[in-house]
């Protein structure tokens, strides 16, 4: 349907899609666009394409530490930027080869790192039984 919103000076087209969640509860997706010639299915097709870009930005920020730069100098910022892009490209290549998402891959990496750290603690404890390492 076409609507006029209070804070927008031009008409917009609004569409609603109801879909079932994995738990069986209904989900509602409401989209808005400025192209009045778009139908509901057209608006959802554009949204699906745009959503992939949003997922990319979210993954780059959260999984490749793009937004977590502790740097202040331009040259260290550019190094951090380059390293986070390399990390994202590696995640993307792993994603295509394993068919797992970025967040699932990150969880598997963390799990492997924790297991390795725990194994090293056990090794250190066995070498020096007098050490006060609590397991």
Q: Helix and strand layout, with pairings?
A:
Layout: E1 2-4, E2 11-20, E3 26-33, H1 40-62, H2 74-98, H3 102-127
Antiparallel strand pairs: 1-2, 2-3
Structural account:
The chain has a domain at 1-38. It contains 3 helices and 3 strands, in the order βββααα. It has helices at 40-62, 74-98, 102-127; strands at 2-4, 11-20, 26-33. A 3-stranded antiparallel sheet has the order 1-2-3, with helices on one face. The mean pLDDT is 85.
Give the structure's gist in a few sentences.
By secondary structure, the protein is an alpha+beta fold. The chain has three helices and three strands. It has helices at 40-62, 74-98, 102-127; strands at 2-4, 11-20, 26-33.
Count of individual beta strands: 3
> What oligomeric state do the depicted chains represent?
single chain
Following the backbone from N to C, one meets helices and strands in this order, namely: EEEHHH
Instruction: Count helical runs.
Output: 3
Task: Supply the helix-strand structural class.
Answer: alpha+beta
Q: Which ranges are low-confidence, i.e. pLDDT below 50, for 5 or more consecutive residues?
A: none
Give keywords.
135 residues; 3-stranded antiparallel β-sheet; 3 helices
């Amino acid at each position: 349907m076409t609507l006029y919103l209070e804070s927008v000076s031009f008409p917009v087209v609004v569409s609603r899609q109801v879909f079932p969640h994995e738990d069986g509860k209904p989900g509602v997706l409401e989209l808005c666009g400025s192209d009045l010639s778009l139908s509901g299915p057209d608006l959802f097709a554009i949204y699906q394409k745009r959503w992939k870009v949003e997922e990319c930005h979210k993954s780059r920020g959260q999984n490749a530490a793009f937004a977590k730069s502790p740097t202040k100098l331009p040259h260290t910022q550019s190094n951090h930027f380059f390293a986070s892009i390399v990390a994202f490209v590696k995640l993307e290549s792993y994603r295509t080869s394993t068919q797992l998402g970025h967040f699932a891959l990150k969880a598997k990496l963390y799990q492997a790192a924790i297991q390795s750290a725990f194994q090293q603690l056990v090794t250190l404890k066995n070498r020096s039984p007098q050490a006060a390492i609590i397991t």
